[in-house]
């Protein structure tokens, strides 16, 4: 992708008070130089570059463009918070179907979710959600804005879906890689990502593109168009846009050790666990193996115990001896019959469709003030399969008189199993369809606002105010999935002594419509039986979220100080968020009110409390909160000297009052120093940032499971574990410190820019969930707030533990960010165009998570390749641009790491493993380098053709083994799709 010139604080005075290094293809008002805001002359444009367009006329509302790390807009202001900016030209060169896919390549963005993540999940609720995460701190700790305004969440956690934004009109995205809660409020612990649209777009532009992988899958098509025009002497301005993107995804190949559509890299990786005896003898607990075979099931059934152990079922139900692999330890062998493996059955990428319609209408009240209204409708649909069949790992109790058992097996069972029951495992390969999940998110958002300027005490002040109402409806349907109890009734089949027909053994189940099914062998399933165990309605979750915001921000200069203008920004905001979620009666329970009750007939054989599905058991819930907040920010220049340079102090404070979490506050103090050394600037900032508990954490719907806990007196107590939200949660608080060195176009290297920033973020009172036993132990240890959720000393049947989240955990991450850019005109060599070298890199030194629970230990996430924070993540590019053509080569680099930092690597004489520190034979996982190539050709002044090849070398993904057979990929770090070709045409009139 095309990397921005510098992580910098864009402050461009349109009147020309500060110089910016101009780059071909970038709009002048959004160019970002390393020393943006400093009075450095602009570098001359190369002779072969097209002449830059004249700057747009200054609007009446403001004469500055300010990046998102601060609310201050003032002459000469250089903010201390590091910020990376991507312009529309950068996204054009990246040539992705979705801006989200470009942003997640930035080194600071780690742990984001998208259409290649969570493809294994049925119940998470975040499938297909394009949400951004900074520093690996999670999407809930990154605040994503549109034109500096909050956007209604696309999930009960409050995170937004970038795919719902009007992306064609985005002219710049600012990624603030430091705490910004003092400026923007809750959730900005990791930072802020602010999408800034072209509010006065005039003309017509369109983009048409298509693509596919080298395996002829994940075919995509994109169609975008935008139009804008001024009326009535440009007092009335209307902008509209529409976007459609379709990506077909990569479907599941089904069962067995086979990759989809010719991909050969999948080899059934797994972590094989040794026995206790082997561990006592010094063997490691885990060993990374390839071509793993799970010995607890086969594709069409496998007997897993007793004298018939190893009997599998094939065509027509014929029994045959199962081919076990070698080196069998625990649940895994190596090699053997792997036809029933389910790991490769997960989609590599979801089938994904986004549709967005956007409009903005503004009216200039006078030369200095405007009012506006915006409307956005967006819908994002995904479809994917998390796994084939429904694997049962040797836990099916099959009676010897089962009517579908072959005669020889039934006879052997009758003589060899005194209990009359044997254990069977199966992948259920006879199922006619794989589980498929269909999330649909629909956003409706309206904003009414005003911005402009006014005079006060002889100074110019600017303001912006808006009121927003946003709604998001998320509906998740799961198809072709079974009801556990119905499945168990249907496979327990006997022959009716009167009619001779095969029927379900349970009379109650027969009365409720049970139809028997045969799971022994490659036998087509009876469709009536399939409809009984997997009814067409399937699990469903319907969530309605809403957000109302009223906000005002005022900005101006208080006075002219001896070192420069003393500036101030202040404002206030009110926000209310609420949600309501309904699940189907089979998942949520028939006792809960559900709008879907009529579609799910009452079945007395199912659990009335819900949780009947194989997966996708969605429950009901609702909740709301509101917050009132106000902030103030100052910029105070305190040094301006030819000898000592220039320096300014930036301070801010925000006070918040939550209806649920109570009072919270945030602040920051930072400074920048333009040293007397040519081109050298230093910056530092320290801030307190907050994240209030979200609706899901506060009001998660209750689910109930039965289990036993130890009452700390040696007695096991049967309890109900009631998983539920915790309205008593308090805000998380963070201390965010950073220090940076910026070198910007020194006299000895006029086209060179470099920045190095160190960051250290400590988050305490982190909201983390506890299990039932942990809560009981903490209560006996004296934690009274936990004791309120524990009741285990009552009569039998009345004991329970509320499994809730509490403010016990902590996070600590620190590292260093690097950014560099160099541009050189080739005119000096009598060659056309110019060359630009750019690079961003992030070194995560530590990413420590501490559960805060007695008996647990902190864990290190930096370099853990099963997580989201590699030790090094880098993005480099080399571009050549001329008046007619352009080429860009990009390298994406991920450093090598480990399976888990808490594992102890050893091959022999290993210490006894512990729960916190297991032993492993080989803990290493390799890194990866991906090459991308793109190019442009200006066909005419109005039309540009382009192409892009991602993962040019078609590098296979690194397999990340699990303790079960799964797809074993980590798309949060590695490319899972393979080489992808895209081409298109952009038009501007």
From TrEMBL:
Gene Ontology, cellular component aspect: cell outer membrane
Domain spans labelled TonB-dependent receptor-like beta-barrel: 458-952
Cellular compartment(s): Cell outer membrane
Spans annotated as Disordered: 29-60
Family per similarity comment: Belongs to the TonB-dependent receptor family.
Entry keyword Phosphoprotein: no
Membrane disposition: Multi-pass membrane protein
Name under which the protein is recorded: TonB-dependent receptor
Keywords from the UniProt entry: Cell outer membrane, Membrane, Receptor, Signal, TonB box, Transmembrane, Transmembrane beta strand, Transport
Transmembrane segments: none
PROSITE patterns the UniProt entry points to: TONB_DEPENDENT_REC_2 (PS01156), TONB_DEPENDENT_REC_3 (PS52016)
InterPro entries, alphabetized: Beta-barrel_TonB, Beta-barrel_TonB_sf, Plug_dom, Plug_dom_sf, TonB-dep_rcpt-like, TonB_rcpt_CS
Keyword Transmembrane (UniProt): yes
Record's compositionally biased regions (Pro residues): 43-57
Sequence ranges assigned to domain TonB-dependent receptor plug in this UniProt record: 79-192
Signal peptide (residue range): 1-27
Domain of life of the organism encoding this protein: Bacteria
Motif position, TonB C-terminal box: 972-989
Pfam families per UniProt: Plug, TonB_dep_Rec_b-barrel
Lineage: Bacteria, Pseudomonadati, Pseudomonadota, Betaproteobacteria, Burkholderiales
Subcellular location, principal: membrane
């Amino acid at each position: 992708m095309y990397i921005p010139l510098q992580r910098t604080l864009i402050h461009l005075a349109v009147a020309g008070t500060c110089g910016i290094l101009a780059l071909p293809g970038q709009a002048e008002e959004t160019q970002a130089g390393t020393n943006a805001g400093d009075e450095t002359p602009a570098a001359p444009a190369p002779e072969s570059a097209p002449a830059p367009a004249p700057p747009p006329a200054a609007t009446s509302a403001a004469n500055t463009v300010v990046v998102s790390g601060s609310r201050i807009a003032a002459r000469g202001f250089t903010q201390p918070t590091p910020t990376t900016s991507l312009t529309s030209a950068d996204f054009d060169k990246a040539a992705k179907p979705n801006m989200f896919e470009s942003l997640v390549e930035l080194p600071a963005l780690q742990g984001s979710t998208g259409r290649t993540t969570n493809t294994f999940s049925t119940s998470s609720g975040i499938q297909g959600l394009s949400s951004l995460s900074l520093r690996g701190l999670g999407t809930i700790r990154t605040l994503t804005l549109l034109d500096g305004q909050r956007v209604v969440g696309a999930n009960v956690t409050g995170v937004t879906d970038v795919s719902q934004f009007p992306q064609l009109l985005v002219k710049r995205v600012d990624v603030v890689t430091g705490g910004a809660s003092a400026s923007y409020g809750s959730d900005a612990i990791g930072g802020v990502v602010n999408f800034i649209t072209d509010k006065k777009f005039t003309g017509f532009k369109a983009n048409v593109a298509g693509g596919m992988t080298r395996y002829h899958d994940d075919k995509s098509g994109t169609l975008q168009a935008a139009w804008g025009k001024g009326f009535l002497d440009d007092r009335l301005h209307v902008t509209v846009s529409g976007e459609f993107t379709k990506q077909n995804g990569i479907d599941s190949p089904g069962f067995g050790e086979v990759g989809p559509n010719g991909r050969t890299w999948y080899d059934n990786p797994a972590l094989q666990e040794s026995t206790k005896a082997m561990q006592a003898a010094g063997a490691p607990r885990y060993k990374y193996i390839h071509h793993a075979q799970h010995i607890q099931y086969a594709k069409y059934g496998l007997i897993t115990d007793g004298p018939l152990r190893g009997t599998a079922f094939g065509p027509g139900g014929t029994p045959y001896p199962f081919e076990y692999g070698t080196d069998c330890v625990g649940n895994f062998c190596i090699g053997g019959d792997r036809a029933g493996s389910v790991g490769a059955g997960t989609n590599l990428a979801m089938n994904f469709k986004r549709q967005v319609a956007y409009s903005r209408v503004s009216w200039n009240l006078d030369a200095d003030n405007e009012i506006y209204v915006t409307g956005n409708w967006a819908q994002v649909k995904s479809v994917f399969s998390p796994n084939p069949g429904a694997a049962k790992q040797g836990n099916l109790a099959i009676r010897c008189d089962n009517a579908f058992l072959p005669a020889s097996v039934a006879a052997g069972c009758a003589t060899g199993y005194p209990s009359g029951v044997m254990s069977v495992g199966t992948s259920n390969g006879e199922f006619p369809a794989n589980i498929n999940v269909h999330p649909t998110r629909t956003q409706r958002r309206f904003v009414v606002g005003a911005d402009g300027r006014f005079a006060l005490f002889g100074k110019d002040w600017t303001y912006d105010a808006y009121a927003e109402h946003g709604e998001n409806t998320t509906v998740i349907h799961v198809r072709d999935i079974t009801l556990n109890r119905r499945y168990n009734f249907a496979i327990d089949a006997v022959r009716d002594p009167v009619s001779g027909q095969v029927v379900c053994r349970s009379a109650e189940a027969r009365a409720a419509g049970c139809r028997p099914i045969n799971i022994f062998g490659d036998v087509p399933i009876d469709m009536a039986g399939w409809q009984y165990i997997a009814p067409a309605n399937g699990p469903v979750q319907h969530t309605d979220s809403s957000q109302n915001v009223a906000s005002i921000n005022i900005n101006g200069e208080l006075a002219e100080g001896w070192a420069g203008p003393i500036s101030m920004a202040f404002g206030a905001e009110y926000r209310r968020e609420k949600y309501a979620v309904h699940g189907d009666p089979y998942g949520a329970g028939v006792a809960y009110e559900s709008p879907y009750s009529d579609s799910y007939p009452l079945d007395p054989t199912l659990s009335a409390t819900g949780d009947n599905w194989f997966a996708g058991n969605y429950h009901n819930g609702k909740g709301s909160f509101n917050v009132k907040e106000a902030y103030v920010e100052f910029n105070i220049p305190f040094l301006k000297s030819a000898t000592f340079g220039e320096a300014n102090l930036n301070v801010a404070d925000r006070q918040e009052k939550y209806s649920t979490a109570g009072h919270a506050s945030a602040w920051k103090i930072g400074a920048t120093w333009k040293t007397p050394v040519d081109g050298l600037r230093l910056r530092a900032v320290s801030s307190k940032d907050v994240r209030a508990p979200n609706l899901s954490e506060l009001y998660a719907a209750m689910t109930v499971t039965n289990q036993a806990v130890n009452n700390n007196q040696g007695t096991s107590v049967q309890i109900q574990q009631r998983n539920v939200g915790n309205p008593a949660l308090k805000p998380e608080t963070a201390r965010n410190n950073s220090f940076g060195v910026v070198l910007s176009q020194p006299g000895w290297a006029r086209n060179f820019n470099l920045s190095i920033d160190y960051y250290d973020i400590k988050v305490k009172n982190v909201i983390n969930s506890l299990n039932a036993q942990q809560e009981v132990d903490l209560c006996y240890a004296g934690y009274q707030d936990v004791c309120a959720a524990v009741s285990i000393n009552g009569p039998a049947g009345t004991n329970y533990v509320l499994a809730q989240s509490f403010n016990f955990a902590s996070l600590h991450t620190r590292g260093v960010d690097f950014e560099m850019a160099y541009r050189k005109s080739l005119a000096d060599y009598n060659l056309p165009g110019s060359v630009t070298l750019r690079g961003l890199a992030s070194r995560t030194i530590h990413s420590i998570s501490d559960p805060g629970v007695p008996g647990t230990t902190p864990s290190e996430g930096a370099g853990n390749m099963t997580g989201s924070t590699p030790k090094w993540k880098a993005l480099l590019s080399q571009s050549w641009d001329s008046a007619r053509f352009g080429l860009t080569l990009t390298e994406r680099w991920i450093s090598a790491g480990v399976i888990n930092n808490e594992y102890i690597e050893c091959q022999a004489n290993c210490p006894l493993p512990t729960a916190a520190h297991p032993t492993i034979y080989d803990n290493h996982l390799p890194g990866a380098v991906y090459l991308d190539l793109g190019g442009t050709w200006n066909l005419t002044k109005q039309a540009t053709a382009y192409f892009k090849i991602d993962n040019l070398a078609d590098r296979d993904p690194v397999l990340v083994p699990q303790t079960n057979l799964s797809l074993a990929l980590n798309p949060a770090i590695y490319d899972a799709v393979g080489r992808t070709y895209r081409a298109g045409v952009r038009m501007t009139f």
